[in-house]
Amino acid sequence: MVHTALEATNAVVTLDVALPGIVWGWIITMNMWAKSIGTGVIFLLFYLLKKYPDAAENLRFPVTVVSLVFIHIFLFFTVIDLHQMFRFWHIFFHPHWTSAITVGAWIVTIMVLVLFGMAFASFIKKDNKLFDKLLGWAVVLAVPVTLYTAAIMAESTARELWQMPTEAVQMLLAATLAGSATMILLGEKLPYEAKRDLGIVLGMSALIAFIVYMSELVFGPMKAEEVMATLEFVKGDGEYATMFWIGQTMAFIAPMVLVWLSVANKSVSLLKLAAILALAGLWITKHVWLVIPQLLNMS
Amino acid sequence: MQLGFLVDLHLCMGCKGCEIACKVENEVPLSTWRLRVKYVDVGTFPETKRTFTPLRCNHCANAPCERICPVSALHYIDNGIVNIDKERCIGCAGCVMACPYGAIYIDPQTQTADKCTYCAHRIASSMMPACVVACPVQANIFGDLDDKTSNISKYIMENQGDVQVRKPEKGTDPHHFYVGGGNVTLNPLASFRAEGHSLFNELKHLPIGGHH
């Protein structure tokens, strides 16, 4: 990178191979985004059933379906990103347990089974007790399902920007942000208090995620040369600077303000607007963070 | 036995013989590279110097690619080589993301990960890697790091103050060393990288049904 090269040596690459380009692109962004919704709604359903059992009773089946749909969108994009997608079964028959990819694939598989069990309990058996028991397991499983992409990023030794535990925190916040936003849009019949709670979860998730991103933006370059070089892509007139700030504004800044205004004015419309912006902004934010370390030359 | 490589950059003259030998021996497709020689020019005219750095897989003892591979397609063999089973690879590209040296690529023909294997197939027949054979100045020194009497061990001993690895801060414990290296040759962030200095261009695919 230009800014770390010494003027004194004036070292210039005069013949080399082309940069490999972006290997994990928008398909992986879709993967992370859909997974955040799929796991996030499970967290928020669990909360609503504990705090507002009567009002949230009818959400059991629709939220399970939404979770199943988004977990399958996530799995679909995971598989189509493979260059040899028809060898996906190798993960189950030749598992390598030091890989977060393997561990994650197995846990997601178990979670999908639990979600189907929840759908069976609520739609066919109409057994809320069984559903709630399975929901507890789904919540437990949703944590590692949410976190394992962060573990993959942490195992990507080459990409200095993706650090643990920062990525783990960001994945959890993405789940609570996306989950609360989706529940705001789904929970039309919920009482205002429940919607306000969802709004507060959305606003707090946005606030903390924004603080973490800004901390990385300011302090990351002070620790590692590669992080400094990577973040140049989102600073000043960097290639992804505009997209980065659009993402930050839509995912975090605007929802924070809108949630605050909606709580102050008891406005559900503002809450819905915050939810839509947060979901769209999260995709953009995740995409920028995924792509920029791949623009750096490794050798 | 732990096989390793050492490149004496004082000797390398950038002939790219190793690159070509590697391409031929391993049938590496166009636009991809198991081994390449990077040219970096240093200084301002007339006080300039051209440096040459052969870059290949480091066969790290603590290899991030082996750790992240979900199906053990990347695996160690007894002599320390990080080998790849292309039939098992699912093409997730986790290894591409994990390798701090940019040494792994997706083979456009097989759609699986690939990289330098220190010519494991040749070593199995007690032959030197193709790049070692091709080097006209014997800048590539290859051998057993566990054997104190091997050429590579002796070379490391004789050049103790001048032996380096790439990105030691990553903790990968590379089995690939350089003598005569420096920040410019071993740190990719220490040089300007203008567009238009690439081997081959970006015209990879035939446009179908349209003008080019």
Salient structural properties:
heterodimer; A: 299 residues; mainly alpha; Formate dehydrogenase/DMSO reductase fold; B: 212 residues; alpha+beta; Alpha-Beta Plaits; four-stranded mixed beta sheet; 7 helices; 10 strands; globular
Largest interface: A-B, 49 and 56 residues
What is the CATH C-level name of chain A?
Answer: Mainly Alpha
Q: How many β-strand stretches of chain A?
A: 1
Shape of chain B: globular
What's the total number of strands of chain B?
Answer: 10
Number of domains of chain A: 1
**CATH fold group of chain B:** Alpha-Beta Plaits
* Gyration radius over CA of chain B: 18 Å
Bin the helical content of chain B: 10-25%
- The main sheet of chain B orders its strands as 8-1-10-9
Q: Which class of secondary structure composition applies to the elements of chain B?
A: alpha+beta
- Taking pLDDT < 50 over at least 5 consecutive residues as the criterion, the unreliable ranges of chain B are none
Structural class of chain A: mainly alpha
